[in-house]
């Protein structure tokens, strides 16, 4: 069935033989000469715009053209012909033009070409009309499709894990509370307790009256629930929003972000590293091959050298290094770092970049971290000090993937939960997986926005998600 309203991307791919076409989109520029008017139109379907030329327009068309300014939405009909101008293969010889929506020049905020990223964040509802954010939107769409394609080709099942949970996967406590209780009533009860000489905490919240009957939160990860399905259908992945109430205003933190989390039954740590490396290379190759036009823009205007950096990643065998080996290398150069490295510390960005860019000169998979700096569910090594964790570090960014072999031994997992002061009853169902048909299994997590930062070269994570959520930022 023929497409009745072809996109500009599709029109640009046609052979120009004078056929009639209709272009619909938003005006980027308009310029006039003595007898000619040129209107550049973009609909966001691709990076390129299409030019419509009006030669000696009639009085009616000329009247409409005079009203056209940047941002106006139009429908232009004409003949598709070879373009005599350089830089474009085809153009439209306009025969009619209709304004669909005005954008007054005195109030439309995207009149000029160069706006700061800070300004564009204040108009998130309009910034997608710029070259940069149109390219980011297309990359986000393409990378989403690539993620599903990779896992579907490898026999994974897509699982939707809950956004509301009573368990804290990371154990950090930085979670958003979900409740139907009236915060005003809670505050008044605490105030009254203080007036009565009691400590405010004595006015304990009765969660029995709450919607779920117990404290509930927005999830920071779908991993634990994904494990339940991996131990039934072997290979699964989640891809959805997650939330963290971390009061951080950096270029790499969001309160709402998207995570990709595969879980694989019968996979040891070595298998986990293999598939994670293949995954990263697959996604980067997808971006380079299927998003060439947008990637060329990012390389030339956002991050010079981006394409070369990404090609080096796809052509490299990732170095596989234990945490202990890496720490020895870092300690040799301790004077180089603001945060001095020592065995048992969590690596900082400066350490990760040093390892990938100066010590090994390629992506690095770090393994076998001290148990004290990793989550309770990671499999304990025989040394009793380290766990079978793995992080993938890439040049120019640092950590991009974190994962591990999961602890499948019931007794060891119970001991870790006790050591960390977690409530065993909150994880009864997770422990059941170790009671009934437990198997070795592994998984990892990839922050979608961190991936997009890497493949686009954008500097701020708030610019690779349509509507960023961060401290004091809950709307546009």
Task: Offer a few descriptive terms.
16 strands, eight-stranded mixed beta sheet, five-stranded mixed β-barrel, alpha+beta, 14 helices, 476 residues
Compact description:
With 476 residues, this protein is an alpha+beta fold. The protein is built from 14 helices and 16 strands. Strands 6-10-11-16-15-14-13-12 form an 8-stranded mixed sheet. Strands 1-2-3-5-4 form a 5-stranded mixed barrel. It has a 3-stranded antiparallel sheet with strand order 7-9-8, with no helix packed on it.
- Widest β-sheet, arrangement of strands: 6-10-11-16-15-14-13-12
- Into which percent range does the helicity of residues fall? 25-40%
- Cα-atom radius of gyration: 27 Å
Outline the low-pLDDT stretches. Answer: none
Shape: globular
Amount of beta strand: 15-25%
Give the strand tally. 16
Number of helices: 14
Head-to-tail CA distance between termini: 39 Å
Largest sheet: 8 strands, mixed
Mean pLDDT: 94
Order of helices and strands: HEEEHEEHHEEEHEHEEHHHEHHEEEHHEH
Q: Please identify the oligomeric state.
A: single chain
Structural class: alpha+beta
